[in-house]
Amino acid sequence: MTALLWLRRDLRRADHPALRAAVDEAGEGGVLPVFVLDPGLWDAAGDARREWLGATLAATAARFDDALVLRLGDPVEQIPALAQEVGADAVHVTAETTPFGRRRDAAVARRLAEAGIAWRETGTPYAVPPGSVRNGSGKPYRVFTPFRSAWWRHGWEEPHPSPRGVTWASADPHQEAVRRVEEAATAYAGRDRLPAGEEAARRRWRAFVADHLLDYDEGRDRPDLDVTSRMSPYLKLGVVHPRTLLHDVAPLVHEHDGARDLASELAWREFYADVVHHHPRSLWSDLTDGLRAMRYDEPVEDIEAWRQGRTGFPIVDAGMRQLLAEGWMHNRVRMITASFLTKDLHVWWPTGARHFLDHLIDGDVASNNHGWQWVAGTGTDAAPYFRVFNPITQGRRFDPSGAYVRRWVPELRHLDGPAAHAPWEADDGYAHGYPEPILDHAVERREALARYEATR
Ligand SMILES: Cc1cc2nc3c(=O)[nH]c(=O)nc-3n(C[C@H](O)[C@H](O)[C@H](O)COP(=O)(O)OP(=O)(O)OC[C@H]3O[C@@H](n4cnc5c(N)ncnc54)[C@H](O)[C@@H]3O)c2cc1C
Questions:
Q1: How many domains, in total, are found in the chain?
Q2: Where is the chain membrane-spanning (predicted)?
Q3: Is residue 342 part of a domain?
Q4: Tens of pLDDT along 7-17?
Q5: Residues enclosing ligand 1, CB less than 6 A?
Q6: Region 61-72: what's the mean pLDDT?
Q7: How many C-beta neighbours within 10 Å does residue 308 have?
Q8: 50 lies in a domain?
Q9: Distance CA 288, CA 434 (A)
């Protein structure tokens, strides 16, 4: 028989239980790996996201011995049509966990059932499937630290060995899908960015483990140093599975704070997926009720300054420009820029979350939207609302040499050291066209706190 393997957030060959299941079921008939470009999602994505996906798909095609078939259209139409075209008896997938993915998959599975084709889900993009970790009374966790302990106790499987000598089936690709992917991959190759593909991910990970893992606890808050793993863009598309990473990190956690903190960050990713599993509506509305009465401003002119990195606050602008240029931003700077939008510009967090998702190559709706809610004070473990990030002191503290700001804001490159964080203090601070601050942080902080008080 022939089995279809519909790839989505699992663009890899190693440690891939759904691939293994497809190979086992298909036998001689072979496995047909397919990726469906959904034009709605493709067209809505910013250049950085499209190019990263294109480059990753090109690398995945090579990893799958050029057997990967690209289709263009709504998967609800495309997958059943392709399955019938090649006479497949089953469609294998890694289970989706987002509300959008679950709804779409249910629609595809229904269509397949009508045609007598089986739908098989094996594995998830997480070490522990969302929904599996419960407290003593069988309830889900709302707070991270106890979740992390229970998640750790729950444990996960060892990485799955890759099947060898796979027989691939074949089908014609959609030429327009091929053209779009090639165009995006070519554009990506012309830029000096994170290399795409499974082997590149493994290389990056091995270098991180060798050079930075054990000191991760010290360097992880510094955007001027490239010392975090940068696994998030790979994890987003499933180029690497968290199980594979935890296999290397878990044995070190009791001896090394760096390994402990890295495992903990991976646990945040799992926690947010778990929260979304239990509270799907929390993706686009406040998880908690505490700030339901909060007065927000409509996003108007100033939001464009935030989006384009022209607020006049150097660390905020550096981050927002990195986002537009690279599709990635350091975690500390995500927090600073999110705080600026929600507490200095008083804009409700979903507006910012949407902008991040349009541009981040690691854009993950659970981690992103709950990261936003954490900063906004509406989510799990919410930082108290009254803790408002000061973008100037944050910049000086976490980018002490000003190197991060100078890298992304050319108009400030003439200012040495930490002076890049305060152009208003230098005679020639605005000599190269850098904008003056669009607001007074002290005033907006007071305003944010007044609005907070008014909700109580
Ligand atoms: C406002 C905001 C938006 C965010 N949006 C996203 C997003 O869309 N996608 C995304 O993957 N992460 C998001 N994060 C979390 C975090 O910023 C990134 O995961 C991290 O910067 C990725 O870089 P890295 O791979 O070098 O991380 P490392 O520091 O090397 O951490 C290793 C891995 O742990 C996970 N991780 C680390 N920190 C977090 C966190 N706070 N929450 C959840 N998982 C975490 C990631 O999978 C990451 O790849 C967001 C955080 C905030 C505050």
A1: 1
A2: none
A3: yes
A4: 999 999 999 99
A5: 220, 228-232, 235, 262, 265-266, 268-269, 272, 330-331, 334-335, 338, 356, 360, 362-364, 367-368, 371-372, 375
A6: 97
A7: 13
A8: no
A9: 39
